[in-house]
Amino acid sequence: MTEDVTRPGPGGRRVLNTYSTPFLPYDLEGPVQPELSWLPVNFDRATGQGCYLMRMEPGAATISHEHQGMEEFLILEGDLVDSDGTVFAAGDFVSYEAGTRHDSRSESGCLIAVFEWRKPGK
Questions:
Q1: Is residue 24 included in any domain, yes or no?
Q2: Counting runs of H as helices and runs of E as strands, what totals does the chain give?
Q3: Is residue 5, in this structure, part of any structural domain at all?
Q4: Shortest CA distance to 118 belongs to which of 101, 98, 103?
Q5: Contact, 62 vs 113, CB < 8 A?
Q6: Relative to the CA of 68, which of 10, 49, 108, 118 has its CA 20 to 30 Å away?
C-alpha cells in the first residue's frame, strides 16, 4: 500500500506530488517487472484508460504488448529505444494507434508520462 500524499483542492482538484509519492512495482503487461515501476496518477485498470508515470531502470525492457486503445507518452528524462530501433529522448511525445504492437527498452533509464485512452465511439 502506498502512502496517500494527494492533496484535495476546490472543484474536485487533486494534487499528487510525483517526487514524494512512492512508485509501485509495474505489472500492466502481466508479471511484475522489477526493473520497471509506475505511479498511477489517474488510471483505471478495468478500462485500461488513464495516465501514469513509468520509470525504467538502466537496461530495462518492456514485455511486447498490443494496445487496445491509444497509447501516448512523453519522455521526461532519459532515453527509450523502441522495437524498431527508433530512439526517443527527453521532450519526445510518441503516439501509438489502437492495435499497434511493440516493446521498448532503455539503455540509461528513463521516466515517461503515459496516457492511455480510447477514441470516442471505439
A1: yes
A2: 0, 12
A3: no
A4: 98
A5: no
A6: 108
Contact residues for 26 (Cβ-Cβ < 8 A; gap 6+): 32, 33, 36, 37, 38, 54
Read off the pTM.
0.84
How many other C-beta atoms can be found within 10 angstroms of the C-beta atom of residue 62? 21
Give the domain range for residue 18.
14-117
Tell me the per-residue pLDDT of 56-113, one tens digit each, with 9 for 90 and over. 999 999 998 888 889 999 999 999 999 999 999 999 999 999 889 889 999 999 999 9
CATH number, domain containing residue 74: 2.60.120.10
Q: How far apart are the first and last CA of the chain?
A: 34
**Amino acid letter, 73:** F
Taking alpha carbons only, the member of 37, 71, 35 closest to residue 53 is 37
